[in-house]
């Protein structure tokens, strides 16, 4: 009932670091109820004027490869357009037409056909691993393989082809650069450091590395690492993307299929399973990132209220002093009246005041149901 009304990610806030397809990912998350904070960690810079791409293009035209692997639609189109601008467009298309052209996925296949070419094969999974398996199964010894790079390294891919005896030529169609407007990335970084996000998503290794670099530049790298290691879930689209994070001791989750849809589905399973669920005053209460479910109904709660509730939930049924609760309130100073004000707002937000009991002269406690008292007291 709850998931039908609100979506499995209702009450959670998810960060998006992607530049490409960020709108698509954010839409998938919002459709499932999540609040989204977008801070692109990178921007894509075409290499139309880049001598490295021009050199690679001329080399391929002069020495036609046996195989060409097109990895992204935007990159393939950019390559053809750049070649046109240099006066090499027809020669490049002729070169590609003579080679065995592999297209990673339907979008790339569309770009290939729009250029007047026909792909020899395209994997159903859109996985570079499947492309590699096909090439190795065919045998690559003595063959020249041109690989359209897409802004990030492909660990193991080039090495496996080289070990199989192939000559691999990289075609750097575009590269990743820091965003022109750093503000959104800084806001996302602050949200991670202050635990205002429940999860942050990464769809490329350069984006993960860029977030770490920005945190170091601002002097908050240790705080970022602590948040990602203990409180904010890091979810990567695949193992290659996870490498920069894992190098810093951050555990990451990745879907079985390296796509946006499975990534979102993984979040839909993982975040609700980590929410704290308690039986309070005859109600089932589930504490999420910025909201609380009371008997399946969603109640948004302001940050101060969530801070109090989180502190109470760490010792359900136990009395927590006003002084301890005051320390949990961000920027509250020393006035214990701030606790009473925040507590009143919390009770109003929950819509069921009896979930939290006032213990005169001592503090507050969650109204844990009697049958659950022994379990939580022993734990």
Features:
379 residues, alpha/beta, Rossmann fold, Arc Repressor Mutant, subunit A, 3 domains, five-stranded parallel beta sheet, four-stranded parallel beta sheet, 17 helices, 17 strands, 19% strand, elongated
Please, could you describe this protein's structure?
The chain is α/β, with parallel strands linked by helices and 379 residues long. It is built from 17 helices and 17 strands. It folds into three domains: 2-42 and 179-274, Rossmann fold (3-Layer(aba) Sandwich); 45-176, Rossmann fold (3-Layer(aba) Sandwich); 276-378, Winged helix-like DNA-binding domain superfamily/Winged helix DNA-binding domain (Arc Repressor Mutant, subunit A), CATH 1.10.10.10. The protein has helices spanning 2-6, 22-31, 51-62, 73-86, 89-98, 106-114, 128-138, 157-163, 183-193, 205-217, 221-230, 239-246, 260-274, 303-313, 322-328, 337-350, 370-378, and strands at residues 13-16, 35-38, 43-46, 67-70, 100-103, 144-149, 167-172, 174-177, 199-202, 233-236, 252-253, 276-280, 283-287, 291-294, 297-300, 356-359, 363-366. The strands form five sheets. It has a five-stranded parallel beta sheet, sandwiched between helices. Helix 2 links the parallel strand 1 (13-16) and strand 2. The radius of gyration is 26 Å and the shape is elongated. The model has no long low-confidence stretch (mean pLDDT 89).
């Amino acid at each position: 009932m709850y998931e039908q009304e609100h979506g499995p990610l209702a009450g959670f806030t998810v960060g998006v670091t992607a530049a490409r397809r960020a709108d698509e990912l954010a839409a998938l998350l919002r459709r499932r109820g999540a609040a989204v904070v977008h801070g692109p960690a990178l921007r894509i810079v075409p290499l139309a004027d880049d001598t490295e791409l021009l050199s690679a293009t001329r080399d391929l035209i002069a020495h036609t490869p046996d195989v060409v692997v097109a990895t992204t639609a935007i990159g393939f189109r950019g390559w053809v357009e750049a070649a046109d601008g240099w006066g090499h467009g027809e020669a490049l298309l002729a070169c590609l037409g003579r080679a065995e052209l592999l297209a990673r996925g339907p979008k790339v296949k569309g770009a290939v056909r729009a250029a007047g070419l026909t792909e020899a094969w395209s994997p159903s999974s859109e996985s570079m691993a499947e492309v590699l398996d096909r090439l190795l199964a065919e045998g690559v010894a003595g063959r020249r393989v041109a690989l359209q790079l897409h802004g990030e390294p492909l660990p193991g891919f080039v090495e496996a082809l080289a070990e199989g005896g192939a000559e691999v030529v990289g075609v750097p169609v575009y590269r990743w650069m820091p965003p022109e407007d750093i503000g959104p990335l800084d806001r996302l970084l602050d949200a991670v450091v202050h635990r205002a996000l429940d999860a942050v998503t990464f769809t490329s290794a350069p984006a993960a590395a860029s977030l770490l670099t920005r945190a170091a530049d601002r002097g908050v790298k240790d705080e970022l690492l602590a948040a990602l290691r203990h409180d904010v879930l890091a979810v990567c689209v695949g193992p290659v993307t996870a490498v920069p994070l894992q190098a810093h001791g951050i555990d990451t989750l990745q879907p079985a299929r390296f796509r946006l849809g499975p990534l979102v589905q993984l979040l839909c399973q993982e975040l609700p399973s980590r929410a704290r669920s308690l039986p309070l005053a005859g109600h089932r209460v589930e504490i999420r990132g910025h909201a609380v479910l009371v008997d399946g109904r969603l109640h948004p709660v302001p940050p101060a209220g969530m801070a109090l509730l989180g502190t109470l939930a760490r010792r359900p049924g136990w009395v927590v002093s006003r002084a301890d609760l005051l320390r949990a309130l961000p920027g509250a100073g020393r006035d214990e009246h701030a606790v009473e004000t925040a507590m009143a707002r919390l009770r109003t937000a929950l819509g069921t005041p009896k979930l939290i009991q006032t213990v005169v002269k001592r503090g507050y406690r969650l109204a844990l149901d009697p049958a659950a008292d022994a379990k939580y007291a022993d734990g």
